UniProtKB/TrEMBL annotation:
Keywords: Membrane, Transmembrane, Transmembrane helix. This is DUF805 domain-containing protein. InterPro entries: DUF805. The chain crosses the membrane at residues 38-58, 64-84, 104-123. The keyword Ribosomal protein does not apply. GO terms for cellular component: plasma membrane. It comes from the Bacteria. It comes from Peloplasma aerotolerans. PANTHER family: INNER MEMBRANE PROTEIN-RELATED-RELATED.
Amino acid sequence: MSQDVREYKVSGDHPFSLYQLMWTKSFDFESKSNRVEFAWAMLVHFVIFAVFITFSHIEMTMGITELGIIGSSIFVVYFIFSYVPSISLMRRRLRDVGRSGANLWLLWLPFAGWVALAVLLFSKSVETE
């Protein structure tokens, strides 16, 4: 059993509390985030994104353009407000695996960069002395 999973079970954190932690540490680029904290926060984040996109798509295909525009607008506002907390969480996770925040530039390389960054983000934590 990995260290991250044991910490998660002992702390008793709920996935939504880990997601909330992403928001409360929005401007904390110096501390670290373990693999479980990162994974649950990002999973909840992507589920919210998927819900917004699905509802916007359904509303637009049903011809309810007013609701589709409102749904799309809410999605864009959520994306804008969640950008800094997401980057901050990824930066903290990279610090935990012993990598530089400069690795976030991999986000700009389609597919290969995303895969490489995902491998780094889900790597095992580095023990510090």
